[in-house]
Write a structure and sequence with these properties.
One of its GO terms (molecular function) is monooxygenase activity. This protein has 3 domains: 5-85 and 117-197 and 301-377, FAD/NAD(P)-binding domain (3-Layer(bba) Sandwich); 87-116 and 200-297, D-Amino Acid Oxidase, Chain A, domain 2 (2-Layer Sandwich), CATH 3.30.9.40; 396-452, no CATH class. Helix content is 34%, strand content 25%. It has helices spanning 17-26, 62-71, 75-82, 117-129, 181-189, 263-271, 277-284, 331-348, 356-383, 396-412, 414-424, 436-447, and strands at residues 5-13, 30-36, 59-60, 85-88, 93-97, 111-114, 134-137, 140-147, 153-160, 165-169, 172-175, 197-212, 223-227, 236-241, 247-254, 286-287, 292-302, 314-316, 322-323. The chain binds flavin-adenine dinucleotide.
Length: 453
């Protein structure tokens, strides 16, 4: 592909999934792409302190796997060779959201990609290192984004581990730092307003560990996702097969209900889940790692698209814009899809420095649209708990009834089951669940429950 910005440099702040994905996108268009990461980027597969969530379960949804394949040709083969497990979301999943109809196990040919987050990062880094115009610089903390005389973003100031400061100019700076601090600081420093934020409190705590199962003791599923009935119970559990014959086990509680880190109490917590799939499995397995906790206080969506004077030359992406309740496993997929969006916008552009004046607002607007589906899906469950902080949509009751109707249909109709999963995995748009035909069927099933059979 001809590079539109062959003489130019792009900088990416952060080498998480968002940063790695967008670096691959930019490498198609820019002469040089520099990724600056404050952590060490280890050759071996291990979690990193800069992204503390890398110790915890990270499932890649089908839509995210497709987006990564557009950016990293051949990545699916590499992931499988590295040990990633594919789980058919219908046939291989023990899925239960208590209070909704139990979905039968049936083949849907839609897959969760199950591998540890450090392994996914390692494979993506390996592919990026093969691209001659990409540099991954570890132990390089971005201290600030530097403005030009017109208050556009013109580069960054970086600090090395030894405390040495360096300035690097760029036509485009991407903030994939997770928290988005560099962008917020830049807006403040250049006298611009900060974006409005929508927040929904989750007050969720993960207790995570790793299990192995002796021969013959493996569960008959590759993925269990069991969630209590809202609003009565906020507990959840996940047990997911990944590389090296290991399984990620997570128990989660919300609103101050914290999973224990002692073995017996951990198992007793698992016993309280709506079904015993996870607790039975764990009792047959062996714990291979300490139980570690992670607190996730709230989901947050920053509406950068609404700012009329957002700086040219800067684009935030991934968690820096929006993070949602991790039990839905959408964050990496959203970030990868955003990188694909930017790739398309750059490919369609004229390739002049001034193109960024139109690409920026278009990207922020498309990102706002992309985030709507994962945000409303995840927060609908969170907001069902009365103690959860956050504004409830006026039509919340109708939305949740409609969702219940779709699930009832999904239980008896494989096509609706598949479509529901495709929307959840960000493969298909959510409006396909609202076609006139489906709306009619959902109304029928809600008014006359027997109509679903
Ligand atoms: C407990 C938990 C479980 C999750 N499970 C899933 C899941 O199952 N599936 C899923 O898709 N998503 C999951 N997510 C979400 C997922 O982690 C993120 O949404 C996704 O990785 C995109 O994040 P990101 O790349 O924007 O930010 P991050 O992954 O947070 O990466 C940001 C990077 O920027 C670096 N950085 C920060 N500041 C600077 C700086 N100033 N200079 C240089 N580098 C900097 C950090 O060190 C880090 O490496 C989970 C999240 C949590 C918290």
């Amino acid at each position: 592909m001809d590079k539109r910005f062959a003489e130019q440099r792009a900088i990416v702040i952060g080498a998480g999934i968002g940063g790695l994905a967008v670096a691959a996108a930019l490498a198609n268009h820019f002469g040089q792409v520099v990724v600056l990461e404050r952590d060490e980027l280890p050759a071996e597969v291990r979690p990193r302190p800069g992204a503390a969530q890398t110790r915890h379960l990270h499932v890649l949804l089908s839509g995210g796997a497709a987006a990564l394949a557009e950016l990293f040709p051949g990545v699916h083969t590499r992931l499988i060779e590295a040990g990633a497990q594919l789980a058919d979301v219908g046939a291989d999943a023990n899925f239960e959201l208590a209070g909704t109809p139990k979905l039968p196990r049936r083949e849907l040919n839609i897959y969760s990609w199950q591998l540890s987050r450090p392994l996914l990062e390692a494979v993506l880094r390996e592919q990026l290192r093969e691209r001659e115009n990409v540099q991954l610089r570890e132990l390089s903390r971005v201290i600030e984004i530097v403005p030009d005389e017109n208050n556009r973003a013109a580069g960054v100031r970086v600090e090395s581990r030894e405390g040495k400061h360096d300035e690097l100019d760029a036509l485009l700076v991407i903030d994939a730092s997770g928290r988005g601090v560099p962008t917020l600081d830049f807006l403040k420093a250049t006298g611009r307003p900060l974006p409005t934020e929508t927040t929904v409190g989750t007050d969720l705590t993960y207790g995570t560990t790793v299990y192995s199962f002796p021969d013959g003791a493996e569960p008959d599923f590759k993925q269990a996702w069991v969630h209590g009935k809202a609003p009565e119970q906020g507990r959840a559990g996940f047990l997911v097969k990944r590389e090296n014959g290991l399984w990620d086990a997570v128990l989660a509680g919300r609103l101050g209900d914290v999973p224990p880190i002692e073995d017996d109490a951990f198992l007793a917590f698992a016993d309280t889940l709506p079904n015993q799939a996870i607790s039975t499995a764990l009792r047959r397995g062996r714990r291979e790692a300490p139980i570690v906790r992670f607190g996730y206080p709230e989901s947050r969506w920053r509406h950068f698209a609404d700012l009329t004077d957002f700086p040219v030359g800067l684009l935030p992406l991934g968690d820096a814009v929006c993070n949602t309740n991790p039990v839905f496993g959408q964050g990496m997929t959203v970030a990868a899809k955003e990188a694909v969006m930017l790739h398309r916008l750059l490919a369609e552009s004229g390739g002049h420095a001034s193109s960024l004046e139109t690409i920026g607002p278009a990207f922020l607007k498309e990102m706002e649209d992309l985030v709507k589906t994962p945000w409303s899906g995840a927060t609908a469950l969170d907001l069902a708990y009365p103690q959860t902080k956050g504004e409830r949509p006026a039509d919340m009751r109708q939305r949740s009834e409609y969702q219940a109707g779709v699930m009832k249909l999904a239980a008896v109709d494989p096509d609706v089951h598949r479509l529901m999963v495709e929307v959840r995995h960000l493969v298909k748009p959510a409006n396909l669940l609202h076609t006139p035909d489906l709306q009619q069927r959902v109304q029928a099933v809600l008014q006359h429950p027997a109509a679903s059979s």
